[in-house]
Design a protein that fits this description.
Blueprint: E1 4-18, E2 31-34, E3 37-40, E4 43-52, E5 57-61, E6 63-64, E7 76-78, E8 81-82, E9 87-89, E10 92-94, E11 110-112, E12 120-123, E13 139-141, H1 146-157, H2 159-162, H3 169-185, E14 189-193, E15 200-203
Parallel strand pairs: 1-14, 12-13
Antiparallel strand pairs: 1-4, 2-3, 4-5, 4-15, 5-13, 6-8, 7-15, 9-14, 10-11, 11-12
Length: 217
């Protein structure tokens, strides 16, 4: 089995919307009463390049906003969750994981970056269909490319298994899950996280005039 290197870079690639999220407060996704209806709060945050060495580049959410129940929502705030420091880790595989704030795709599971901590690499929102996710600091691969992201890692680590011909799709997914588990068990995936400062998050939803925020989209 071959080694695989992934770099979570500090290079910004664009923007994505996120909703302030909390695993303990209810509702988990922060809402605000505007006019006569409840509206979900959205902030715009930078996206970052994630690079598979020998493979492709991906856009990801790296920093987000925790739902602390602060109302009205400030027009601009600093992201307060994510991994800002430089580190190198060897993730393990968490089978069956589904993200809590976006619709799961055909490939479930996540890479656990640190033992006993809830920082993962997992599937993120699909901006192409207007999906908005909440994050508590995970690395979230955007735009329905999670399956491709996993396939590239598996293909580099064990090409003779990942690309074997004539395997039914269901059996192929089982084989790929087995590859991911073996990668994690033997420490074959190295993830380097580059140092980056917590970026600003800008309110991106239409709210009452006192927020003095431009209404976008």
């Amino acid at each position: 089995m071959n080694n695989v290197n992934v770099v979570i870079t500090r290079e910004q690639t664009g923007f994505a919307r996120v909703v302030p999220y909390s695993a303990t407060l209810r509702p988990h996704r922060q809402m605000y009463f505007v006019g006569n209806q409840w509206v979900e709060i959205n902030y715009e945050v930078p996206t970052y390049k994630v690079r598979i060495e020998g493979g492709s580049d991906y856009d990801a959410v790296r920093f987000g906003v925790v739902n602390k129940g602060i109302l009205p929502p400030p027009p601009v705030m600093t992201c307060n969750t994510g991994i800002p420091h430089h580190c190198i880790c060897h993730p393990t595989w968490k089978p069956g994981y589904n993200p809590h704030t976006v619709a799961a795709g055909i490939r479930t599971g996540a890479w656990i970056l640190f033992p006993q901590k809830y920082y993962y690499i997992h599937e993120g929102a699909n901006r192409l269909i207007g999906e908005v996710g909440g994050t508590i600091g995970c690395i979230e691969i955007l735009d329905d490319r999670w399956k491709q992201f996993l396939a590239e890692i598996e293909g580099i680590a064990a090409p003779e298994i990942a690309f074997k011909k004539g395997i039914p799709i269901q059996d192929s997914n089982v084989r790929r899950e087995a590859i991911d588990r073996e990668i994690g068990i033997h420490g074959k995936l190295t993830v380097t996280i580059e140092e980056a400062v917590f970026p600003p998050a800008k309110l991106a939803s239409p709210f009452i005039a006192t927020t003095t925020v431009e209404v976008r989209g």
